[in-house]
Amino acid sequence: MQNETWIALTISAGGALATVVMLALKARLNGDDPSESAPMLRQFVAYFAAYLAAFAAAATLGRPWSLLVIVFAASVAFAVTMHGDRPLATRAFLRTWAITLAVFVGLWGLYEVLLLAGIDLLDKNFVPPR
Question: Which of 4, 75, 102, 113 has its Cβ near the most Cβ atoms within 10 Å?
Answer without folding.
Answer: 75
